[in-house]
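Subject: two folds for Thursday's group meeting

Dear M.,

Sorry for the delay on this. The cluster queue was jammed most of the week, so I only got both jobs back this morning. I'm pasting them in the order they finished. Each block is the input sequence followed by the predicted structure tokens. Could you check whether the formatting survives your parser before we put anything on slides? The first protein is the one we discussed after the seminar.
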Amino acid sequence: MFGLKKSVILLVFITLFAFGIRTYRFTEPGHYYFDEVYHAVTAKAYADNNSAAYDPFAPPPQQGTAYDWLHPPLAKLIQAASIKTFGNNSFGWRLPSVLFGTAIVPATFVLAYLLFGSTTAVFAAAVISLENLNLVMSRITMNDVFVTFFILLSFIFFKIYRDNKKYRYLIYTGISLGLAAAMKWTGFYAIGTIFLFELFLDFVEKQYSLKSLVLVIIPPIIYLLAFSQFWIQGHTIQDFVNLNKQIWWYQNRHDLEHSYATTPLYCVPHGLNAAKQFCPWILDVRGVYFSYEPYSEKAGYIYALGNPLIFWAGVISASYFLGQIVERKKFNYLLVAAGYFAFWVPWIFSPRIMFLYHYLPAIPFMTIIIGYSLNELYKTKYKILSVFILISFALVFFYLYPISTGFPIKISDIDHYMWLKTWR
């Protein structure tokens, strides 16, 4: 079993590993790829204080690009600050994603530690550092790692509040929830989950209070503040309402198609109303092809795929964990389960197509569940199996590393990485 001091030392090494593996060649390719044609372009417009970036009807700034008005602005404002500091280049666009993607690792450790202790925390941090989808999303200019980090932070503060009942931690929870929602509307799932959890616990403990209202009062204030540039540019309340109406309209579109489109349960390349094929996110059946970059006789491929062994272990561990919830009926177990299921089950009812990377906010909770399971195994006479499983995760992680990062490989070698025909 790992004591706190040893666990912190291990966390430092795990975090340094995660940072190093994310920074290596993260500026390649040196041009926009996948949704950077929206996110990075918009971050540059924010850096230039260009109000067109907030206009859903503005013409594209250049061919093949468009402004991303589909999400709240905070992640792109952070990216804009990086562009202002380091220049309009791939280093400037992607550095914030690297930092926040790396920060998910210690944040997962902290939440796991608060819930289940140091050994589970070490296992959870190690597992998420070896998770390929988190790696991919930490090296691209998008907003998913940002919302994931602040969701974790909100759960951390909420857990601390439930332990010591100091009101300031509930306020910190509300601020973190607001920051998550200001990154991406997925953050509203976190608001609903934690607020309902708090109401439920107050009901069970028969300690009714209006204090929990800060969880639904603070986030809208943070959300409005995230649009500070929008307000400073002279936009009106009606402009704000119209913009958010357009966001809502787009998120409810039924007519979208994409060859890598999925729902949490099905592949839907021709839209939600066309033929479907069973390919659930939790089994890592269908990722997203992000990039192809030629390098002389080699090529760099980037696929947004999870580490399949971790995903599959997550299904087994979640099944075991649900049994633990029934048996133990404790807050910590319920909180992790709520965090895991809240960020993918509701998407089953989404009115528009989605992609595997929408599963990202659930992954830290999945790795905590895996970490818990590995710890339970580690406490038995079969502890060597937990080490073997972790090594297996690492071997698959490094095997898939080239197609997670665009590392040049022989063009013919790509077939060796396509374990499932649905990955193509």
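Second protein, same layout:
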Amino acid sequence: MSCSKLRVLIVPSWYPMAPAPSYGVFFREQAQALARAGLGVSAVFPEMLPVLRASEFNVARDVLRGSWETDEDGVLTRRVRSFAPDRWPTVRAWYWTAACEALILRHCARHGSPDLIHAHGAAWPFSAGALSARAAAAVLRVPYVVTEHASVFLENRPFPYGQAVRIRQGLASAARVVAVSRALAARLRQWVDEDRLEVVGNLVDSRFFTIPDMRPQNPTILCVAGLVPNKDVAGLLRGYAAAFPDEASPVLEIGGDGPERASLETEVTRLGLSGRVRFLGHLDRNGVRDALWRCGLFVLNSHLETFGVALVEALATGVPVVATRCGGPEDVVGEADGLLVPHGNPKVLARTLRTAWQARDRFDPVGLRERAVTRFGDRAICNRLISLYENVLAGRAR
């Protein structure tokens, strides 16, 4: 089957929506890239918002209008909006799964069945796309594949019994399970047979993330991450303070928001970094690119990363990176792209930040970009996925 005739339905566990335009944006970018590659791509997504935010929306209108369709740069997308309490994640997950299955079947009743369903996420209860795809695929009699992204699989702890059952259900019937890094694939082997498991990284929008026309005159050090414990921005602040103790140091910009913001601002004051650290808050795609265009070094100090989309975006703009060895970055950062450090060693982090900053001009921006795009650009990732889809359908035909 040629890709121009192949119809794929995307079932993401997270997807951009008006209240959260950056939520799961890389899922939509991958879907749009597949559409540009010639596939017939559509997507469904139930927008499940917290009950506490219901006052911000016209709830009656949303309930009465039911689902709606939009063409999002070549991806026909069907959505429905509802509200559920965040305090009961399992109840919310069941509700979302049922709504998503109904949305898939409604979409297919109008537009016909796809050749294949591609779901993202099986880590119940916070990503339920795999279970929805499994239920709908059984009704439609089409195969489905699952791409897993969740860092919870990298955590060294057992899943509660109910969660483990739902994860296994979502993955057991999948024709293929895709891990976004080798580290994640190693952990998924306890859930998935080796012959169904593949590694395909996330896609970077190489048309959007480009090398700037002019290099910045006063480059910064940049971190773009959620302000949550896993990203260990507090550890980065301590490493930065040790690496650059004087006032002539490069400014550290931190893009992102989250529950740790107040404590991190307090830490900045405690470390005597006021005026040398800027919190940029939540950044949209333009904001991320603008921040990358004015930086000379990108840093990610996470405990766990299944991939590291932010690292690839930095490399695609010609910026070298420093990252922790925490799973995904090992697949992204080669010797010519930047430096990897063990997590939890502040002295090594400080020394590496100082070394990388002093050596930043030795990294060739064009080379950084070319390697990133060759491995993770639209063409590279779409070719891998199209080959996977065609192999699944060829095996089903046999």
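Two things I noticed about the second structure. The chain has two domains: 3-203+377-397, 220-375. Residues 3-203+377-397 form a domain with the Rossmann fold fold (CATH 3.40.50.2000).

Cheers,
T.
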